[in-house]
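Bumping with the actual sequence this time:
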Amino acid sequence: MLDERLERMKRKRNCRVYFDSDSFKISDCTVAPVHDIPDVIHENQEFDFYVESTYDVYLLRIIHSHDCVVSIYPAKVDGIIYIVSSILMTKDNVKESIQRVLHALEPYGFPKLKNPKSIITFNI
């Protein structure tokens, strides 16, 4: 339990550099885009975001796609929980798309999402 808490604190400290003036709030989380979002988004184009809750930091990848699937990948040693979502996204609805993914994660414990033992995949 203590080791898990220390790992979360270490991840939050290491990822702090990504949160700057481009970051924005969604619910109780701070979201930091890794990439600039272009005006035109192509099929299967990927965008990464760091998502910080009061509990932990996660890496969210959104793939512009019709699939509507979310996968949660366990963090490796000294790693970060990786969330991959395939949903439709435009430059104008980035926040709504992220909120939709975060809301879909709630049954799995988000915003206190713990490191899963194996990959979890579900439809949204």
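The tokens above came from a reply further down the thread. The first helix runs from residue 2 to 15.
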